[in-house]
Each structure stands twice: as structure tokens, then as C-alpha cells.
Amino acid sequence: MAQSIISKGRDINEAISVGLSILNTTINDVNIEVIQNEKKGFLKIGKKTAVVKLTKRENTFNDSSNSSINHQDFIEQAAAREVTSENIIDEFEMMEKLISQLDIDEDGSIKEDTLSETPINETSVPATNNNGMGKAWVENGLLQCNSSSTHYPVITVPKGINVYKNKERVTSSSLIITQEDDIQIELAEEKIKTKWNISMDKNHLKVMLNVFPGYKITRTLTDVGPSEHLKLVIEEEKIVDNSLTYEDIIKELDQLRVKYGFNHNEIIKAIETVEKGEFEIATGLEPKPGKNGWVEVLVKLETESGLKEKEDGSIDFKEINDIPAIAEGQVIGVVYDPVPGVPGVTVQNDPLPAKQTFPVVLQLDKGVERVGDQIISLQAGRPKVEKRGLFVKVSVLPKLTHKANVDLESGNIRFRGDVEVLGKVEEGMLVEATGDITIRKEVNRSKILAAGAITSYGNIMSSELSAGKSNMIITELGDHLAKINMNLKMILKLIEQLTQSPAFKNTDFNRRGLKPLIIILLEKKFRGFPGLVKTFNEKVTKHKEEIADKRFLDVSSQLNQCFLSLNRENVTHEYILNLSKEIHQLYEMSQTPVEPEAFITIPSAINSQLYCSGDITIHGKGSVHSKIYAGGKLKIRGIIRGGEVFGRHGVQINEVGSDMGAVTKIAVPRDQKIRIDKAMDGTTIKIGNVAHTFSETTHFVNAYLNEKQKMVLH
Length: 714
Description:
single chain; 714 residues; RNA-binding protein KhpB N-terminal domain-containing protein; 21-stranded mixed sheet; 34% strand
């Protein structure tokens, strides 16, 4: 009896190749019957594999009828066969079944989830029999087969499975097996060890444990029913195996000398966790901060605003400022010593000192005296307490009231205290005060300088106003000191390295001090440093009378002695180190806002320059062709026509720009906002380094920079 088998494949070519391989013969030695051609289906539905029946010929050596037929010729012949009525009926049946299973939306579209890739009642391949002959299956994790003389099962091997056939490993993705074959399947297990590490912060206050639990992956062969073409399937199970122990952690903590603040609950969580995590397993005791010295003020200091609004929103110019005043012998305030902090404890059980506290730097002006911890007034006047960090200046200001105009007849006014001018300030005149200045009428082509606030009830025309100038000087000096100290720290580091070298110890420098070494460093490595010191000293000298904190003068003198003086006076490393610390303290103080801050309040400004370390408010018509700088907020209720204005803490304006094309620029730092009710064509606003010019009139502008440093206008 001739041997025959039924073979399947993705196409006729593959089906024939599989069959020839099973029969171990060639195409010239078999008869081929096409049972089913492959079909691609419609919308992936109705897809079919190719099925052929191969029968070995008897006495093939005498049969030459097919000797000229090769593999490809047969495929082409099969593909070119005539379309029969049965085929047509089969196609129509498939389409009817396809359409009956589709789910249609109300708009006539096909729901995507109904386009299944599962074939519709695919025609079954005739089996060799109904009892598993010619098939393979997996049962209870074991691969079994029941081959026949006419059909051998084909096995597809996925990744993750090693198959050995007759003790040889199978390297291809598919193989044919028989009952006689010795098939061994190897499912490798994968095991990852637990990883963990312990770290300590630089202050030795926290110990953190990071845990990455290990795991084991076990694989089993899934049971699959009998099939002529069997694909092996595996199941994976991941079992977390956290092997970290309490003893492991304690041993590592002992290596780090951790003795204090164990968090046992966190340690237990870490060894039981099944997910990666971070645990704080030891915590030290942070030091409690102390408090620097301070002055408690016992008297009223702030002047009540003299520009009071009526119910209709207009300004009542008849109201007089409510200026605070004290009597002779009155207590102005109390001085308190610094309160030290409480030391902490590190996880290594070492004491952790609290941040050092410092006493207040108190400067008492004329008319004020300290008695014990109290500050007493020696004369009547307006109390003034100026605070900037640890620096506190206390004074009692007398008041000068000038009842006429400030003109050539009266001369310029310079006064240590408050000044009130009941008339005008005329062209070319100067009014300067260490306190506040109040002017009842106009200011024309003149200069007004106040250490405190400036209030004018009249318009400002072609004049210069400066309030809180000394505060700006301190800030500028602080910026200079920051640059100086950066270089000074590098000089100190080089000196430390050089003085430790044997070459230095064998020179005369070791006996004569550091001055010769400093001169060499300035000539070879820090040529620009003397210029920085010289610029700082010149600024201190220029504004000597305006600098209340005399520590700036002391630092200037020390810098001159160390780096500019030609004398050979001995300079030690400790001397330069202490100088660097003092410079740093002055810099921090210079960046601290002064209390109370100066301000300028006026009705309008024309062709003028206004500078203030605090807020500037223009409550009347506005500003025309003026230059304005506000260290605080800038608020203009009227209009701005031309000029440049800047508000360190933001700008708020009613109307900006001009129909005549006058250039108007508004600027703030990058962290502030510009609010304008009406911005006219040609107005330029700038936030940080980002500028925008309006091409048309725009209302209700609220400009700022977003997270991407792009300007947002509304």
C-alpha cells in the first residue's frame, strides 16, 4: 500500500516542503493532491492555510511521466487551476458569515472590535483519524505524540525553551517528531539576587537604605490539546525573593559607626518589602537654631501717609503728616543679647553644634545714648531706627521747617534731620536731608536728596529726586565685596597649599611673613585683584559721609594694607582668613532689605529723573519723558508718555504710550510682572532679557515670563 500524508503550510510551497521532509523523498517520487489553497481572507477574516496530500509512488524508477515537473512548476499549476462553482459558493458563504458577524454603528461604520482575526468556520483539515493519530499534545507538562505511517506531527518551539531530540539540541524553530524519538524539554529558571545599599548624608543626620528585592522566575509547559502542528506554550511565574536580613543591615551600620537614632520599624519594612524602595533607617537629632541679637523698638516710627484720599478718590492736600515724636529722656528701645542654639546629635553619636549666633551691631547717632540694655533719647525729635541684618542705627532727628521758597535768597538747604519746605524749590537749588523731605509746592530744575522718604504736593519739572541713596550705595558696595571675596578665597587656598610645601619652609618667606608671597601671587595669578580693591576703596571714600555702617571703612583700610600698600608689614594667614569672614558678613548684610525702606510720592514728573531704593507712587497726571528707577514697586495712576521706567518689585500703570510716537520703555526683573490698563502702539515692555513691542493698542496687559521663559501678555 502506498504511503501518504496530509501536510499544511502558510502556502502551497511550504505545505509541499513539509510533506516531502516527512516522507524523506523528492517531488518526482510523490503524487500531489491540493486539498485547499491558502486564502488571505477579507479584512483578515476567513484566512486559510494551504493543505496538500502527498502519496509515495510505487515503482518510481519506471515512472517518468512527472520527471520533468519540479516543485515550482507544480505550485504554478495549482495556482492556475480553474475556478469551480464550489469555490464560488464557498466564497459567497464566507462573505455572508463575515457580514452577519459585523457590528455596525448608527452612522454605518464598522466597529473595530468586530474585525476579529479569527477565521469564520475555517474548513477543517481532514484528520488522519479521530483518536489523535498523527498528532502531538502536552499533558501534565509532558510532550506526547502519536505518529502514524502517513503523518508526523510538527512542533513549533518558542523562545525560552530548549528542546533535545535524541540527545541533540534542536536549533531550528520547528521540528518533526515520532513516537520513537527521545524528546527532552528544558525550561531554564532565572534567579536575580537582592541588591541594596546604605548611604549617609554629609551632616551625618540621616542614613538611607535603598532596597531592590531579588526574584525567581519559574517556567512550566502549558497543556495543549492534540494538534498536527503543535506550538509549545510556556507560563512564567515571578516569585519575589528579598534575601536582605536584619543582621546584614546592622552589620553595615556598624561599619559606618552608626550608634544613634535607629529606626527599627523602617528596618523591618525594608527586609519585608517586595518592591524597590528607600527607607530612613537611622535619624540623628538636628540642632535647634538660636537667635541673633536684636533691638526691640518701643516707640512709633512710621509716618502716617500725608496723602489721604477723599471719598471721591481725590487727594486731600490739606491733611498734614502725622509724624511720630518723642520727648527727651524717653526709652526708644531695648537691646537683647544673642540666644545660642541647642546642639544636635549625629547618627554616629557625635555632638552637632548649632549655627553660631551674633550680637547686634548697634550704632547710636547724636542725641541717643545706651544705658544698660536700654536706648535713651537725649533730645526731643522724630525717632529713626534703621535695620539691615545685624546692623541697627538709632537716631533722633530734629525737624527743620522752611516757611518760604528755596531760592537764591535762602540758599541750598542741607540738614541732619527732617526737612519741610512750605514753598517751592526753584531752579538750580538743592535740598538735602538725612531724614525725610516734604515739599508743599512745585519743584523746578532742582535737586532733592533724602536718606529717607520724599513727599511732594506739587509737580516735579526737570528735576532730580533721590530717596534712600545710602541704601543703594550699601548694596553696590556689597556687590563689589562679593567679587573681592571670591578672589580672596582662591588666594587663601593657594597660600595654604604653598605654605605646606617643603620648598616654602626652606625660604625666607616662612620667616618674613606672607606679604612677599602675596605680591608674587598678585603679579603672576591675580593681576585684576588690585583693581577690584582700588575701585571698592574709591567708592567708600567718595560716599564716606553717607555710609552709616563704619565696618565698610574698616574693611577698606584692611584691604589697602594687605594688597595695595607697599610696606613690608607682616601679614598672617589668620589675618586674611578673618578679613574674608568679615567681608562675607558685610555682603550678606548688604543684600538684606533695610527697614523701614525709603519711598517717593509725587503727583507728576516732567523731564525728570527719579531714583528710590523703595516704592515710587505717582498719583496725579503721570510721567512725561522721565527716567524712573524704583527699588520696590512702581505705581503710576495716570499716564506715561515717553521715557524709561523700572520697578524692581513690579510695575502697575494706567496708560502707556503716545500718539506722537514717543518711545516708552517699561522694565522689570524676570521674576516680576508688568500690569498696564492700556498700552499704545510702539510701547516696549521688557521682563528680564525678554522684550516685546506692541504693534497695536492693547488693553488689560498682565505680562510675565512662564516656566519656559516666554513672555505671556494676558
